[in-house]
Structures are given as structure tokens and as C-alpha cells.
Specification:
Blueprint: E1 3-9, E2 13-20, E3 25-31, H1 37-52, H2 56-61, E4 63-69, H3 72-78, E5 85-90, H4 96-99, H5 111-114, E6 132-135, E7 138-139, E8 145-147, H6 151-163, E9 168-172, H7 181-193, E10 198-201, H8 202-205, H9 211-241, E11 248-251, E12 257-259, H10 260-263, H11 274-289, E13 294-299, E14 304-310, E15 313-314, E16 316-322, E17 325-332, E18 334-337, E19 343-347, E20 354-360, H12 378-385, H13 402-415, H14 420-443, E21 454-458, H15 466-473, E22 477-480, H16 489-495, E23 499-510, H17 515-535, E24 543-553, E25 560-564, H18 571-589, E26 600-611, E27 631-637, E28 642-650, E29 659-661, E30 664-667, E31 672-675, E32 679-683, E33 689-693
Parallel strand pairs: 1-4, 4-11, 5-6, 5-9, 9-10, 13-21, 21-22, 28-30
Antiparallel strand pairs: 1-2, 2-3, 7-8, 11-12, 13-14, 14-15, 14-18, 16-17, 19-20, 22-33, 23-26, 24-25, 24-26, 27-28, 29-32, 30-31, 32-33
Helix pairs in contact: 1-9, 3-9, 6-7, 11-16, 12-13, 12-14, 13-14, 14-15
Length: about 700
């Protein structure tokens, strides 16, 4: 039997999805292991193997492809536990990392922290100033050499960093995106003097303008590079020892996968990559279901994430902020807030109001109901309200203690003069309101109407809250993808990913455009992509290339991506590009805001080189002739303001043909769907749980 295995390591849980050659899908969820994340990967794989009825060795020996999404790099950056790193830059620009464009004190801060300006602080430095060395050289914005690299200074800088016992050296010189010759010379010097040191050049990572953003990206790549080397080596060695014989495929923030050898060279692209897998899986399923506009929402133990699929394409961005550091890289546009199942409930001493997150109890100690800690969380609130079955958590592998949840919530309730269940309901409402607000920002600020979208809700905690935040946004349809599979949707999403390499070339062309130059730029990028895909073992017939240009009006800073057709471009294609740019521009900035008379400029060429992979087969379920008899338990419904004996259905007993009217609770082994009083649900022939919200219901 052949298998395809996908694993997603989150901050709280590690999820695994396994598909066999017959299309049978098996999932498992196990606590993450922060001391050694590779242990969590194999614990989850072993749990899936057990469900399949084989041992882990047999599973891995029969695995065609092993896909892994990881937060190892993200966690190393957030916890500042990366490698000792040095940086070499152009003389006069040693302090760009420290200056942070003067915005480092507030970049990426949540609104509750932005309001307290006196408390703003810069993050800990990625690289200490004494480990940043300057060299004499200069290249202009067109790529011309103004001053040759001083190789004596370069050698002295490298030897000084080696003497400081650095494990990684980053190289970021001015305008290397226009001419990388000096960075390449420096890299050769590093490899000659310190062959065992991890080295990274900015032009190899980021093609966009922005000295600071390139410097940050290069520093982060070096900071997490040795850590990622160790993680990947651990996975590969353990998997090989158990019989896995093929390359490890690692998820990137672009939504595609690449062989592990590339990840160890450019680990920057794994930063925040976990949520991208959920978007990739949702995009795959949305096309199957005929949905073009989808809001994807993922609620796990640590955070709530959302992304947008518009006109069948996931939206992308190029700016990322982690730990207040801003850097550029092409990625799926997924935003996150600290509003997960493990988000801690607390009271602000100044305003005496209840708050939810962003701090999380994590996997250890976890929510109070785990029995290892005392911090009250959203999961504790859901348990107190009756939404969760204490005997069904993680498919029954872990029992939750409701009494400990009550004990954790009681001090907060007493301080606010509320009953425990009232405080729990209030906490859940706050969390759901924050989720709805994030979705508003992701849609309305782009000129998109959320009412024209369908919500995909997944993650272990997402379906418990989807009805509430969908109703607040005026959205009438929710999809819990493939029912119980939704609990490990990001792991499943890795199995839907293609091999994807993104190539960019920074340029500046003004209208009227040089058609020969444009065709030449795309040909250059596609040649690089074709060569890389061939090295990955992708057949020519499985190669797909997507083209984009980033366009702006003259004197503007921000650029908007515009898709371009394949093949040799002509003047009609350029005219169509301009019309499409104005259409996109007005969708962002309002009708009538486009002004072609200002002059139009192309600032970036981009090519996605895709190696198509085998995709999962969406299962089919037989229609049920009889309705399963539900159980019951008391649940507190905020809409009614009272406890109600509520039907509780076992999700695995449901099938097409059964309609469930709220209020009700549907329990799958790995997730719980809360059907609010104003909703009704049913399962379609593929096992998706569909929720419809009724207008005017309480």
C-alpha cells in the first residue's frame, strides 16, 4: 500500500494527515514538543499509523512523499533562540538594522499595545552591533560599479567574525538586486576562509528594493538557518531509519513545497508557513465545490488566522512583520491574532474589563482543564458552557477536567461580579468579535464585501465559533471542510501543495514600455525556474509557469501585482495589463482613483515555477436513509440567555441527507461543531459539513 503523509507542527498541536492509494484519509493530532519538534512529528505519524492498523515503520516504508509544515524557524525568531550571526554591509550602512526605518518601536504591535506609546520598545537585536562589519564598495541603482569591492577589507571582516565564533554570516550590500557581483565575491571569501559557516546573500533571498527589509530578511535567514538545518536533519535521519526513501518536502510561506535541501539554504521562507497550508488545501477544495470567493479561517490552540481566496486565487503580499522586524518576501496573505483555544483570559487592572489573549497557555501547561496549569483560557470557557465534551477531546485521548476550568474562571467572575457561566459566555463573545474584526480588515480594507464570500472554518477550535463570527459579518454559508478532517486541515493542505519556486527581478520601466525588455525578463526568470524544477525531478509536462508584474503610478511607492499571459507578449497584452492594473487599483482605492496620465511604471517581474504534484481524491459518502438518534447535554446559549438541553450528534454517524437544526452540537473525534440557534447544518456527499445561517433568528 502506498501512502502520502502530511504533517503540520503548530505551537500547541502537531497534526498529521495520511492518504492511502485508495483515497482513504486518516488524521491524528498530538501535542507539540517544543524541546524537540521532530518528536511531535513522529508522534503524530505514529498515531496515524495506529489508526490505519500498521506500525510507524511500515507507514514510512510505504510513503511516496512526506510533506512537513513547520514553525521551528518562527519559534526560534520569536524566542530569540537562533544562531550567533554576523553581517557584512556597505560602508556607512552599519546601523540600518538598529534604526529600523524609525518605526521599529511600533511595527506589528496589536492595537492594545499601540495605544501606550510610552511603553513602546524596540525588539532585541538579531545581530549585535559589534558583529556588523562594513566594507568599501558601491553599486548604483542601475547596476553600475561605482567603487570596486575592497577585498582586503572583506577578508578582514570575515576573519573578525570568525574570531567572534559566529555560526552564520549574512551579506547585504546596496543595490545587489541590480548587480550581485560584490555579494558573490564576498560569499566566495566567506566559503574560503570559513567553510563550515552558514552564509546567505540578500540578492538570493529578496529581489525587491528596500535596503532595510533586505537586511532584515538576510539576518533572519542566517539567524534561523543552523536551527533549521538541525530540525531537517533530525526528520530525515529518523524517517530514513524507519524506511522512508524519498526527499523530504517542506512547506513554504508561498503555499508550495520545496525539497529539504532548498529549505536549509533559504529557511526564511518557512517563517509563518503553517497557515499557508490551510489556504492551499482550501483553494483545492473550493475549486472542487465551485466557490470562487472564500474566507479561510483557522483557529488552533494558539492563534486565529485568516486568508482570502478571491476569484479562485489566494491573495498574496510581500511584507511580513515578525517580532517587530519588517522584511520582504512573496507569501500568501494570511494574518493572525492571539485568539486561539489556549488564549488566556485576564482582566485589565486599569479599565477593569475582561480581555482575551494574545498570551497563550500553549501546549504545556495548556488550559486549566488539562490539569497541568491554572490559567483560564477560551477552551476552559467552551468547556464550562457545555460546548465541549470532556471525554471526547483529541478523540478521547485526553480527558478534560471541567471542575478545574470552573476553578480557573471563578476569580475573574468574582472580580467582575458575574456568574462563572456568564463570564465564560462573555469571553467567548470577545474572542469571536476579535475574529470578525480581523476578517473585516482583510476584506473591507481591500474593497471586498465579506457578504459575497463563503467561510471555510477549520482547526481544532474553529468550527465551535464559526457561526458567531460569520453572523456578525453577514455571511450566510460556512463550510467545515471534510468534517472531521478539518481538525488537521493544515496537515491535509500540505498534501494539496505543488512544488513551487518563486523568482523575482527588480526593475524600473516607465511607459511606453520596452516590449523586448519585458519578454527578456520573463524568459530569464522562467529559464531559472525550468532548471530548478528539472533538478527537483519534475517532468517537463508537469511544469507550469505563472507570470506577474508589479505596477504603480509614477512617484508612488506601493505596487500592485497584475497577472500576465504566457508566451511572447505583444502590444495588445500590454494594453490589457494597463486596463487590468487600473481595475485592481480602483478596487483598492475607490472608483475613479485611477489616473493613467500620471504615468505608469513596472517595478518588479515575478514568475511562479510550479511542479504539479498528485492531488488527493475527495471522498464520496453514501446517502443516509435514517436519522441517527442524538444524545443530549445542557449547554448555555448566549442567544437565549439560559441553559438548554441540547441535542448532541456523533459526527461520524452522520451522512448526506441528514439536516440538523440549531441549537445543536456535532462531535467529531478531533473537533466539535457548534450549531447556533440561528443555523442549520448538513453533510454533503464529500463529507463537508455545511452550515447555513438564517436571517431574523434569535
Amino acid at each position: 500500500m502506498k501512502y502520502f503523509c502530511g504533517v503540520d507542527t503548530g505551537g500547541t498541536f502537531t497534526d498529521c494527515a495520511v492518504i492511502d492509494e485508495n483515497g482513504q484519509i486518516t488524521i491524528a493530532k498530538r501535542p507539540s514538543t517544543p524541546d524537540d519538534y521532530s518528536n511531535g512529528v513522529f508522534n503524530a505519524l505514529e498515531a496515524c499509523a495506529e489508526k490505519v492498523g500498521i506500525d510507524l515503520g511500515e507507514l514510512l516504508a510505504g510513503t511516496e512523499h512526506l510533506f512537513v509544515g513547520t514553525t521551528v524557524g518562527t519559534n526560534a525568531l520569536l524566542q530569540m533562540k537562533g544562531a550567533r550571526t554576523g553581517l557584512i554591509t556597505t560602508r556607512g550602512h552599519r546601523d540600518s538594522l538598529a534604526i529600523m526605518r524609525s518605526a521599529g518601536r511600533s511595527a506589528g504591535l496589536p492595537i492594545e499595545k499601540l495605544l501606550h506609546v510610552s511603553r513602546h520598545r524596540k525588539p532585541p537585536p538579531l545581530i549585535h552591533r559589534r558583529l556588523i562589519h562594513e566594507v568599501s564598495e558601491r553599486i548604483d541603482w542601475k547596476g553600475g560599479v561605482v567603487l570596486q569591492l575592497n577585498e582586503a577589507e572583506a577578508e578582514a571582516a570575515v576573519r573578525a567574525l570568525v574570531a567572534e565564533d559566529v555560526r552564520a554570516i549574512g551579506i547585504c550590500l546596496l543595490w545587489s538586486i541590480a548587480n550581485p557581483a560584490h555579494e558573490q565575491q564576498l560569499k566566495s571569501i566567506v566559503e574560503r576562509i570559513a567553510p563550515g559557516v552558514f552564509v546567505s546573500c540578500s540578492h538570493e533571498l529578496i529581489a525587491k528594493r528596500g535596503e532595510y527589509e533586505r537586511a532584515v530578511g538576510t539576518a533572519i535567514n542566517c539567524f534561523i538557518g543552523p536551527v533549521m538545518d538541525v530540525f531537517v536533519a533530525q526528520i530525515e535521519q529518523k524517517a530514513a531509519a524507519m524506511g522512508y526513501r524519498n526527499p523530504l518536502l517542506v512547506l513554504q510561506v508561498t503555499g508550495g513545497v520545496v525539497p529539504s535541501r532548498e529549505v536549509t539554504r533559504t529557511p526564511l521562507y518557512t517563517i509563518s508557513s503553517g497557515p499557508a497550508a490551510g489556504v492551499t488545501g482550501s483553494s483545492f477544495l473550493a475549486r472542487k465545490m465551485g466557490y470562487g470567493n472564500v474566507i479561510v479561517t483557522d483557529m488552533g490552540g494558539t492563534s486565529f488566522e485568516t486568508g482570502i481566496i478571491y476569484a479562485e486565487q489566494p491573495l498574496t503580499t510581500s511584507e511580513t512583520i515578525v517580532n517587530q522586524y519588517v522584511f520582504s518576501m512573496p507569501r500568501l496573505d494570511v494574518e493572525s491574532i492571539g485568539s486561539g483555544g489556549g488564549s488566556v483570559l485576564w482582566i485589565d487592572d486599569v479599565s477593569t474589563t475582561l480581555k482575551v489573549g494574545p498570551e497563550s497557555a500553549g501546549a504545556d501547561p495548556g488550559p486549566a482543564c488539562y490539569g497541568r496549569g491554572e490559567q483560564p483560557t477560551v477552551t476552559d470557557a467552551n468547556l464550562v458552557l457545555g460546548y465541549l465534551n470532556p471525554d471526547n477531546f483529541l478523540g478521547g485521548k485526553m480527558r478534560l477536567d471541567r471542575d478545574k476550568s470552573v476553578a480557573a474562571l471563578r476569580p475573574l467572575a468574582k472580580k467582575l461580579d458575574m456568574e462563572v457561566h456568564e463570564l465564560a459566555a462573555g469571553a467567548v463573545r470577545i474572542a469571536e468579535t476579535k475574529m470578525a474584526e480581523l476578517i473585516r480588515q482583510m476584506t473591507l480594507q481591500r474593497g471586498l464585501d465579506p457578504r459575497e464570500f463563503v467561510i471555510f472554518s477549520y482547526g481544532g477550535a474553529g468550527p465551535s465559533h464559526a457561526c458567531a463570527y460569520a453572523r456578525e459579518l453577514g455571511i450566510g454559508r460556512i463550510v467545515v471542510p471534510l468534517g472531521t478532517i478539518s481538525a488537521a486541515w493544515s496537515a491535509f493542505g500540505t498534501l494539496c501543495a505543488d512544488v513551487l519556486h518563486v523568482y523575482e527581478k527588480s526593475d524600473l520601466l516607465s511607459q511606453p514600455f520596452d516590449l523586448e525588455h519585458i519578454n527578456g525578463a520573463f524568459a530569464e526568470l522562467e529559464a531559472k525556474g525550468r532548471k530548478q524544477l528539472a533538478e527537483d525531478g519534475i517532468d517537463e509536462r508537469q511544469m507550469v509557469f505563472q507570470r506577474f508584474v508589479e505596477v504603480k503610478y509614477r512617484m508612488q511607492i506601493h505596487q500592485l501585482p497584475v497577472p500576465m499571459p504566457e508566451g511572447a507578449l505583444n502590444e495588445d497584452d500590454l494594453s490589457a495589463m494597463l486596463a487590468r492594473f487600473e481595475e485592481i487599483y480602483e478596487s483598492f482605492y475607490g472608483k475613479g482613483s485611477a489616473y493613467r496620465e500620471a504615468g505608469v511604471e513596472i517595478g518588479l517581474f515575478k514568475v511562479n515555477a510550479i511542479g504539479s504534484m498528485v492531488k488527493p481524491v475527495v471522498p464520496r459518502q453514501p446517502r443516509l436513509e435514517t436519522v441517527p438518534v442524538p444524545g443530549a447535554r445542557r449547554v448555555y446559549w448566549r442567544s437565549f440567555g439560559e441553559w438548554v438541553d441540547t441535542p448532541v450528534y456523533a459526527g461520524q454517524e452522520l451522512g448526506p441527507g441528514v439536516e440538523i437544526r440549531g441549537p445543536a452540537v456535532v462531535e467529531f473525534p478531533e473537533t466539535t461543531i457548534v450549531v447556533q440557534p440561528y443555523a442549520r447544518g448538513m453533510i454533503d456527499e464529500s463529507g463537508n459539513f455545511l452550515l447555513s445561517l438564517e436571517e431574523g433568528a434569535p
